[in-house]
Design a protein that fits this description.
Blueprint lengths: L13 H22 L2 H12 L4 E5 L2 H15 L4 E3 L2 H4 L12 E5 L9 H9 L4 E5 L5 H5 L2 E4 L15 H21 L3 H7 L3 H6 L3 H4 L1 E2 L5 E2 L5 H11 L3 E5 L5 E6 H6 L10 H4 L1 E2 L3 E3 L4 H11 L3 E5 L6 E6 H6 L4
Parallel strand pairs: 1-2, 1-3, 3-4, 4-5, 7-8, 11-12
Antiparallel strand pairs: 6-13, 8-9, 9-10, 12-13
Helix pairs in contact: 1-7, 2-7, 3-7
């Protein structure tokens, strides 16, 4: 009987190939960064001044990248959306107005499916930005400004699949979005308004979003007998009492720790002013909850009274437990 032979598997060079791809694309990105010119700055100037939306478009893989760039713009304070060139030729050109700016991505710049959109932009004087590799292409010639991609080879061994080129487009879109948000002064608080959900939304929660309101707070005057104050402290269940002066300004706090330090047979006959810790630690309602949590951890406390920043008025109480309940860590 003839024995079966087993052909040994050739060693794979997957890691070597992956490193080649990544190094090739990294080199292309460095070349892109070095070759940026005034067209990038002019584009940012144009985007800043527009009163409309930013319309992104492209066909194939360039279209997928354009869609992502539109999403990044929108999430960082610049209204933007993607229009597919083929759909545009069948009615979606009506989504683009003269107040908008059009950014079209095309490696060759001579893609036939883009012609209707380019002609529409020229007809209605809609500012057109090109992102392409060919400065002498139809797209670049029609554009007000051209964001030129370097002539870097695709990472595909056949040089056909869009790889390096789409990486460059994506990175250039990120560069536009970030430069634009910095120019606009787009802040973390602005970011939070557009990202209320998920883990990111929790990270950007403000103290005022999760604090206990003023009406819920255990509050007393400094001349309140401790016998009465303890009843209020027990009823509210926060483990502390805020002490207000006659102008309702926070001047002190009584915590479980203060009670232990002053424990004696005369405790109930004393007044709050004799037991309280003056000038308690506070935080502003507009502060991020994560910031408040870090402050409480560093100060080894579990409660923070909350003030309104402009008036310094007492508006609430934040507990360590409230932060943990919201998944803030």
């Amino acid at each position: 009987m003839r024995e079966a032979t087993v052909t040994p598997l050739l060693p794979h060079n997957d890691l070597i190939e992956a490193q080649r791809v990544l190094n090739l694309e990294a080199d292309a990105l460095r070349q892109l960064a070095q070759n940026l010119n005034e067209s990038f700055e002019y584009t940012i100037d144009l985007l800043i001044k527009t009163h409309g939306r930013v319309i992104l478009s492209g066909i194939g893989k360039s279209g997928h990248i354009a869609n992502k760039i539109a999403s990044t713009f929108s999430s960082t304070g610049t209204p933007a959306f993607f229009v597919h060139p083929s759909e545009a030729s069948h009615g979606d050109l009506g989504m683009i107005t003269p107040a908008d700016i059009l950014i079209i991505l095309s490696l060759s710049g001579d893609t036939a499916e883009l012609s209707d959109m380019i002609n529409y932009a020229k007809r209605f004087n809609i500012p057109l930005i090109a992102m392409t590799r060919k400065l002498d292409s139809v797209l670049a010639k029609a554009a007000l400004y051209t964001l030129l991609l370097p002539p870097s080879p695709e990472a595909c061994p056949m040089g056909l699949a869009p790889t390096t080129s789409t990486t460059l487009m994506l990175a250039l879109g990120d560069a536009l979005a970030v430069a634009l948000l910095k120019r606009k002064g787009f802040s973390e608080r602005d970011f939070k308004k557009l990202h209320p959900g998920g883990r990111l939304g929790h990270k950007l929660l403000q103290v005022q979003d999760i604090m206990r309101s003023y009406e819920e707070l255990p509050l007393v005057l400094p001349n309140t007998p401790m016998s009465d104050a303890l009843v209020i402290m027990t009823e509210k269940g926060f483990g502390c009492i805020g002490v207000l002066d006659n102008a309702k300004k926070l001047i002190g706090i009584v915590t479980d720790g203060d009670l232990r330090r002053h424990m004696s047979p005369s405790l109930l006959s004393q007044y709050v002013a004799e037991i309280m810790t003056p000038s308690p630690k506070t935080i502003f309602a507009s502060s991020f909850a994560a910031e408040a949590l870090g402050f409480m951890n560093r100060s080894s406390i579990t409660n923070l009274f909350v003030l309104e920043e402009s008036s310094q008025a007492l508006v609430g109480l934040l507990r360590l437990h409230d932060c943990l309940r919201e998944g803030i860590a």
